[in-house]
Write a structure and sequence with these properties.
- The chain has about 400 residues and is α/β, with parallel strands linked by helices.
- The chain folds into two domains: about 280 residues, Aldolase class I (TIM Barrel); about 80 residues, Roll (Ubiquitin-like (UB roll)), CATH 3.10.20.
- About 30% of the residues lie in helices and about 25% in strands.
- The chain contains 13 helices and 18 strands.
- α1 packs parallel to α3 and α7 packs parallel to α8.
- The chain is elongated, with a radius of gyration of 26 Å.
- The protein starts with 7 loop residues before the first strand and ends in a 25-residue tail after the last strand.
Length: about 400
């Protein structure tokens, strides 16, 4: 296990009409349906990547929402994959140009396998993920989903002879598991690798939502059959399931949705658990670790007090989100989050009155940061050296 590459933890967010559904339970989110807010929260929680799946796209014929992709890419710097409704090279170009790191093909790859080849040749295999949804065959018959409440989940048209077609014992399905494809899961995985896919996102629809653990049988079979990374999805319910998916299933990454969204498992706890059991995971930066330890206000912000390092004059009070703290510590120049404009701003960018960070202190309650800075020019927009230039007259003390 010493040579094992770091394993990735990937939350998956279902999106419909550009909004996250199956809402998240992050306390500090201003808008739990906003993909940007969700992505920021997962970035701050230590997720390695994200997957956005447009669940309306394939079934209802809606294209992936490019505006959503662009908004996420402009404000969040965690790598992310977008899938759902992508059917052509033009769709792929549009999504990648909007800022996505990768695209995911599922039904479109089954319908037109050559799209995988053309996409990898045009944009590079590192951008192309093929999502494979599978179901285990039971005695020659496949369990499939149905909107018919009386349907018992068995396709009676299947026969024992069909097992010859499915040596792995698993069949690829599309359209949310409602349509069997006649493709053997392992053979299809090998096929898409040969066509240029850079990664496989494997979901067991038998396990999905059951919290009974990943299907490590098919995960291992595919991981052993291909040389590209395999992401295990469908079935995680406890910490041990992620370990088993990596060790028994041979997965390079593990994905979950509601388990993360509703806080049943925290990503830092999962990473600590995996690390303790000898699984290498990507560690958080010192800045992210600091941010996670801070108490935030209801808007997810932390107040920052700025003091002149030479005179010890209190210059100003402003607010920071994670991005502002990260930029401040990275550049040693003060950055803040503008509550009125809801965006990052660099102090002195327009006025030239930069604040050079010399030292950072944290208060005893871990809810306020104190920055000692060298101030260029005036700290206040009024032209005063400090924002605290108005003295409040204290009332005279009343005699008893």
């Amino acid at each position: 296990m010493a040579d094992m590459l770091s394993k990735r933890i990937i939350p998956c967010l279902d999106v419909k009409n550009g909004r996250v559904v199956k809402g998240t339970n992050f306390i500090s989110l201003r808008d739990a349906g906003d993909p940007v807010e969700c992505a920021k929260a997962y970035n701050e929680a230590g997720a390695d990547e994200l997957v956005f799946l447009d669940i309306s796209a394939t079934v209802e014929g809606r294209g992936t929402v490019v505006d959503m992709v662009r908004s996420v890419a402009e404000q969040v710097f965690i790598p992310f994959t977008v899938g759902g409704g992508i059917r052509s090279l033009e769709d792929i170009r549009e999504i990648l140009n909007a800022g996505a790191d990768k695209i995911s093909l599922n039904s479109a790859a089954v319908k037109e396998p050559d799209l995988v080849r053309r996409a990898s040749e045009k944009f590079g295999s590192q951008c192309v993920v093929v999502a494979i949804d599978v179901r285990e065959r039971k005695g020659g018959k496949i369990r499939i989903a149905s909107t018919d409440a009386s349907f018992d989940g068995i396709d009676e048209s299947a026969s024992e002879e069909d097992n010859v077609k499915f040596p792995s014992g698993y069949e690829v399905v599309v359209a949310g598991g409602t349509k069997p494809t006649g493709l053997d899961a392992v053979e299809w995985a090998k096929k898409v690798e040969s066509l240029g896919a850079g990664e496989i996102l494997l979901t067991s629809l038998d396990r999905d939502g059951t919290k009974s653990g990943f299907d490590n049988v098919i995960t291992r079979a595919i991981a052993d059959a291909v040389s590209i990374p395999v992401i295990a999805s469908g079935g995680a319910g406890k910490l041990e399931d992620f370990y088993d998916g990596i060790v028994d299933g041979g997965a390079d990454a593990v994905l979950a949705a509601s388990l993360f969204h509703f806080g049943e498992i925290q990503i830092p706890d999962l990473k600590a658990y995996l690390s303790e059991r000898g699984i290498p995971v990507r560690t958080m930066s010192s800045t992210l670790s600091l941010w996670q330890s801070l108490k935030k206000d209801p808007q997810g912000l932390v107040p920052a007090i700025v003091v002149e390092d030479s005179t010890k004059d209190v210059l100003m009070l402003a607010y920071m989100d994670y991005e502002a703290l990260e930029k401040t510590l990275e550049t040693k120049l003060m950055h803040y989050h503008s509550r009125s404009r809801n965006e990052l701003w660099k102090k002195g960018e327009t006025s030239g009155h930069f604040q050079h960070v010399k030292k950072v202190m944290l208060d005893c309650d871990r809810d306020t940061l104190l920055f000692y800075c060298d101030q260029e020019g005036a700290a206040c927009h009024t032209g005063n050296h400090t924002c605290f230039y108005t003295e409040v007259t204290l009332p005279e003390k009343k005699e008893n």
